[in-house]
Amino acid sequence: MSISVLGAGAFGTALAVSLAQNGPVTLWARDPAQAAQMAEARMNARRLPGVRLPDTVTVTADLDAAMADVVLLAIPMQQTAAFLAQNTGRLAGKALVACSKGIDLATGQGPTALIATTCPGAIPAVLTGPSFAADIARGLPTALTLACADAAAGTALQHALSTPTLRLYRTTDTTGAELGGALKNVIAIAAGVVIGAGLGDSARAALMTRGFAEMTRLATAFGAHPDTLMGLSGFGDLVLTCTSAQSRNFRFGQALGAAGSFDAEATIEGVATARAATALAARHGIDMPVTQMVAALVAGAITVENAVQALLSRPLKQE
Fold first, then answer.
1. What is the CATH number assigned to the segment(s) 3-172?
2. CA dihedral sign of residues 33, 34, 38, 41
3. pLDDT at residue 263, as a whole number
4. So what's the pLDDT on residue 196?
5. Secondary structure (DSSP) of 225-257
6. Where do the Glycerol-3-phosphate dehydrogenase NAD-dependent N-terminal domain residues begin and end (predicted)?
7. Cβ-contact 233, 174 below 8 angstroms
8. Is residue 129 part of an annotated ligand binding site?
């Protein structure tokens, strides 16, 4: 079963490095200059410095040359719909494994729904869970969720994509896996705000707990199984991204809370997800106060002080 990774950012590169333990992998970079530099230097110096690309990784900017039986889409969520629409013919009949975390702003859909509607005949799946690119690339033990509605296809993908250091757990609950991975980025921004504003670890723990309740409310309203949210793609990813400075979403929130600056080129998936989730929650009457506050904060519609006051002044209730 041939494997390719589309998207040569930090995570896509790390996946290619890990999967190369099993055999040849093709890594596609959109920018021909980046692909040439990586192929020559055998390293993604910009996104994953210090990690050598194994000889079994072929880097290319030729999308046709990057087609395989299994295609991992390591493309930012808000670019996924356009990419799929532009390449429907190339991707037809493939097993397409989305590796981005988020909700499409235009449609309110997750990646597997986008794949299903855009690429008929493809097998939609999602790979998500608590992971940092640097850890995967360095061969540190990592466990992820592989979600595919087709149980047989999911089993085949689980075996094809597991490596000696990357352990995959399988589920058919694509909705739960996607929404867990998407919404935890929003809560990670909020956790970063808490720490950046100097509100303390106790406040962060409370925020994570109430944020997880929101994640579960929204996901189960759309048919997800609560157990999925308790797993790697929900609770596991939430813990990682709310407690580590390796998380871009956490660092972004920390800068926001401290009124500091942040790397303008970094992809912060939680920003768009906060907007999309707030719209979904409003449309379906779901209470998500933390998510709503994050959306307002990143839009500049409210201050950190006002957000904290609004959350603390909500009516007292039973847990």
1. 3.40.50.720
2. positive
3. 82
4. 96
5. -HHHHTSIIIIIHHHHHHH-TT-HHHHHHHHHH
6. 3-152
7. no
8. yes
Query: Which pLDDT value is given to residue 33?
Result: 97
249 Cβ contact partners less than 8 Å away, ≥ 6 residues apart: 185, 186, 188, 189, 192, 241, 268, 269, 270
Where does CATH 3.40.50.720 sit in the chain? 3-172
Q: Give the three-class secondary structure for 43.
A: strand
Q: Is pLDDT at 303 greater than 80 in this prediction?
A: yes
205 is in an annotated binding site: no
**Whether the predicted pLDDT of 317 surpasses 90:** no
| Cβ-based neighbours of 316, under 8 Å, separated by 6 or more | none
Show Cβ contacts of residue 235 under 8 Å, excluding neighbours closer than 6 positions. Answer: 180, 212, 229
Q: For this structure, is 94 an active site residue?
A: no
Q: Residue 130 and residue 51: Cα distance in Å, rounded? A: 20
Half-sphere exposure of 172 (CA within 13 A, CB side): 5
Q: What is the pLDDT of residues 37-79, one digit of tens each?
A: 999 999 999 999 999 999 999 999 999 999 999 999 999 999 9
Q: Element (H or E) spanning 113, and its range?
A: helix 111-118
**List 15, 119, 135, 184, catalytic entry:** 184
Rounded-to-integer distance, Cα 190 and Cα 277, Å: 14
For 6-20, write each residue's pLDDT tens digit: 999 999 999 999 999
Q: What is the average pLDDT across 254-271? A: 89
Torsion of CA 147, 292, 81, 158, to 10 degrees: -10
Task: Report whether 94 belongs to an annotated binding site.
Answer: no
Task: Indicate where the chain has its CATH 1.10.1040.10 domain(s).
Answer: 176-313
Cα gap 8→29, rounded to integer Å: 5
